[in-house]
Amino acid sequence: MRRGSATLAEELSRTWRELGSILAGRRLVASLGGGSQLTPTKLRALDLLSESGGLRIGDLAAGMAVDETTATRLVDRLEAMDVASRRRDPADRRATEVVLTRAGTRLIAEVARRREQFFRDVLAALDPDECAELVRLTAKATAALRERSEELVSR
Fold this sequence. Notes:
This protein is mostly helical. It has one domain (5-124): Orthogonal Bundle (Arc Repressor Mutant, subunit A). The chain contains 7 helices and 3 strands. It has helices spanning 5-23, 26-34, 40-52, 57-64, 68-80, 102-123, 128-153, and strands spanning 55-56, 84-89, 92-100. Helix 2 (26-34) crosses helix 6 and helix 4 (57-64) packs across helix 5. The N and C termini lie far apart (38 Å). The mean pLDDT is 89.
């Protein structure tokens, strides 16, 4: 039986909302190694800082899709946890850059290790061909979602 594209879109929307709720859940994030202080928002910020090596507040805000005031308050909380710090941007002494501390780097490494194990466990429920197909289709869908969301935001 072939389902219509509207029905498939509804099913995809429902499934991805559920997936997002699971992956962004506080309990899962805490179990990945951050304890109760590490929220999904803080983890996303730490991931961005880790990937970039450091960001200005405005760039962090853009990467998180929040305003600069919200990003500033988030960085205040990360500093209070001793996982990030502000420093002068080496390329522009007038600017401030947010970077991971040693504790932040260790935390992200531990979260990455546990996250990888979590996804290995998830993939273990599938046969090898399904695993490869899931990863391929997820990457393709992510690219399409990013492109479409950027189109909507730029309007």
